[in-house]
Structures are given as C-alpha cells and as structure tokens.
Amino acid sequence: MTDLAVLSVASECWPLVKTGGLADVVGALPAAVAPHGIAMTRFIPGYPAVMRALGRKRTVHKYASLLGSPARILAATHDGRPILVLDAPAYYEREGGPYADAMGRDWFDNGLRFAALARAAADIAAGRAGLKRFDVLHAHDWQAGLAPAYLVYGEDALTRPASVMTIHNMAFQGYFGADFFARLELPRAAWSIDGVEYHGGVGMLKAGVKLADAITTVSPGYAQEIKKPEFGMGLEGLIVGREDRLSGIVNGIDTQAWNPATDAALAGNFTADTLDMRAANKRELERAFGLEPGDGPLFTVISRLTWQKGMDVLIEVLDHLVGLGGRLALLGTGDAAIEAGLHAAAGRHPGRIGIRIGYDEQLAHLLQGGGDAILIPSRFEPCGLTQLYGLAYGCVPVVARTGGLGDTVIDANFAALAAGAATGIQFSPINYEGLSDAITRTVRLFDDAAAWRRVQRSGMAADFSWAQSGHDYAALYRRLKGAS
Ligand code: ADP
Ligand code: GLC
User: Fold this and answer.
1) What is the pTM of this model?
2) What stretches of 214-297 adopt beta strand conformation (E)?
C-alpha cells in the first residue's frame, strides 16, 4: 500500500538522460522507496532525447508563461512508473548536453532553464498544476535548488508540502548575478540572506540548503566533510547552522542493471563462484583498448576527466603503474588538458595504456567485468558509484580515503585481510606518493592469487542494493510528513 506521495525533481534520470551518478540515483530511487509505501513520481526537463524516448504523453498543465516562456507539464509512464516532463521548447529544445552545447560551453540561460524546472516542480507538488498535491518535494542538486524556495514563498506557504534538498555535489552551486533575481518571479522578501540571495547574487543550491525542511547528502562521510571549508565550498557555515536537518544516506546501486551474472554487455557472465569467467571480459577489453594480452594486473578508470576526480594525479603515476607490470584501460571524457596528458602517456606506453575518450555505458560495464582493479583517486567524492559497481563485479576498488569512497570500501590492511573483511584499497593523501603507493600495494596483493580472490569475493558479498538507503529515505519522508 502506498500512502505517501513524493515528487522527485532533477536535471537527469537514467536511462533517459545521464552525465553522471545523479542520473543513476534519480532513476533508481522510486523502486527503492516503493516497498516502504512511498509513491515517487519523477519530474525532469523535456530535453529532445527525453521527448523522443518517452511514448504516450498526456498534457496535465499548460503555462502561457513559465518565467517568460510557454510550457506544458506532460505525464508519461517509464519503467512502469509515473514520470512528469517539463515540455518547454524555449528552454530545452536544442541538441547538445543537458548543461552545455556540443563544444562544452554552458548554455547561456542555464539559470532560467532550471529555475523554470524548480518553479514548475513547486506548482506540481503544491497541487497547483492539475495533479493531486504531493506530501514531499525532493529536490536534487542546484538545478532543483529553487524548488524549496518556490514552496516557502508560494501563495499556500502554510499548507505547503515538505521539502528535501539532496546535495550530490557541493562543487556545483548554480550562482547567478543580482539581475537574475527579477526573472524568478519571487516576492521581494526572497531577496535576503535568509532567502535566495548569496554574496550579492542568486545562489540556487544555497536557497535549497537554506529553505528545505531537510538536507541530505549522499554519504555520511561527505555529510561531515561539508561542514569544513575545504569541502563546503563557501556553504559550510550554512550547513553547520542547519546541522540538525542534515543527514548522509549512501547511494545504492541498481542490482538488476548491474548484475555480472546476467549483464548483456559482458563477453562472459560470472558470479563469485565462477570468477575465472572474467577472463573472457579481460580479453575483450584488451581488444577494445589495443592492449597487449596478458594475465598481469589490468587497472581501469571510468570517470569524468576532472580535477575533482584526481585525474591529473593519475597522469603522474602512469609510468609507475606500467613499471610495475600493470596495464590501464581508461574510459572518460572531460578537460582537454587531462585528455592530452592521457594521450601522451598512452603514446609513451603503447600496448600498456589504452584510452577511450567518450561516454559509453556498455563499455563501462565491460570494464567492471574484465578489469582487475578500478582506480578512483578523487579529491572529494560525495558518494561515488563506480567503486560500488566495481565491488559488485569483482573489480577491486582502489580509492582515495574521502567522502563516500571512505564509507563504502574496506581497506586491505593487515587486520582486515586477516579477518577476511577487506574489499579494496584506500589511500591518502591524494597526491603522487599516495596513489603510487596504493598501486604498489594493489600489485602486491594481486600477486597473491588466493588473497586477491578473497578480497574480490568479500566485495561481491557486500550489500550495496538500495534496501537500506530506500528504507532511510522513506523514514525521512515520513518524519517530514508527520511534522508538516
Ligand atoms: P560522478 O557523478 O561524480 O561523475 P559517480 O561515480 O557517482 O560520479 O557516477 C558516475 C557514473 O557515470 C557511473 O554510473 C559511471 O559508470 C558513469 N560514467 C562516468 N564516466 C563515464 C563514461 N565515460 N562512459 C560511461 N559511463 C560513465
Ligand atoms: C555526484 C557526485 C558523486 C555521487 C553522485 C550521485 O555526481 O560527484 O560522488 O555518487 O552525485 O549521488
């Protein structure tokens, strides 16, 4: 029985539109909370790819002007669950990515594009847009950050739904100049340090953090870290001030989409009892990445190529990795300077380092199924999903000790190995010494085949399904409903 309705609003949702882990989480949440009596409806922008992918759509609301442009709210079904789409051609009907054009330049009107999404989300949740009122509005990241503000400053502020603001990444805050405020159609009162104003402009994530009834982030570790300037990126004071509203709920993974026993993207399916079958995937990777064949350790990377992900540090250690007999298969896209550095390393080590620039979901699965260890040297990582997929696929995660990485991987230190509890390698500091040392430790562990198997199996036995997190989100929604 479902007795509590939640509207989840975000700029991405797998498999319709994805640039990172946010999409995976938004895509998986409805099924995660359903067993706990929560009916979750997703609400996303009608990008061309989304409009094409969704079948029958029903118009539930029309705006003559949504922050200045006509728009419609459409209802459809996806994966057997309800989904709402904001069809606003002036904001979304353009080819390119959700945030940037094909050249990687941010759309000039990103503030307005996502303010419109947030405004419509608040209307829907409050029952002002042709649908029944929702109990809770769950906003993800800066793109949805104004949604709690539109509820607080809405005409039915006293009877409004409760709101949750989830921070998937503090580094992106959606900050726009003072002029932008006039476009938002918010009352004057919202232009204040207690509202959406932030350092003389509009802070979209700031608004959500300030005005939501609850704040979550995607791991307990990151929830602690963002209270400090190094990770809070300017919002640490606000976070500390609202600490009683903050919790960390670690992401789960979709265990149907990411199951090595049934994954159609693999050359060989396997379980913890048939790890030898992984060899077929390793051979396939060698072909795909132009690597010389071999049984030595094959490291993988699946990542945005950015400073956050420590990809500059990775470039520095590649000679060391190859010197130890390792090979690397990397899939990623991002900063041009990092791509150039990777290509240079691949040029120095033909057959040992293979680079694929681009975004390829199938290849990401094959890398998890065929690689021996996945490297994740992030400087900060709110949760991280690739280490969870690595654990599920016997691709041992080698991770920086930060945020969700620290919360989800058990370092193969002496005690953890002796207890059979180790699931990966953790390291710090996140620099040349830290990462090169971690790679040395990984290669040594790999050479002890029995110990390596135990680490792989412990990882595969760990439960990273949504069961616990789904329970935690459901409990949060219930608390909020009770309080409203
Ligand atoms: P973030 O969201 O910060 O990029 P996460 O680890 O939470 O990091 O999620 C990244 C998601 O995007 C994972 O599902 C990962 O497999 C996927 N991914 C990242 N880069 C690529 C790529 N180049 N090709 C395919 N999938 C990718
Ligand atoms: C962000 C974070 C990542 C997290 C993902 C989903 O992209 O960078 O750590 O896993 O959101 O919550």
Assistant:
1) 0.96
2) 214-217, 246-248
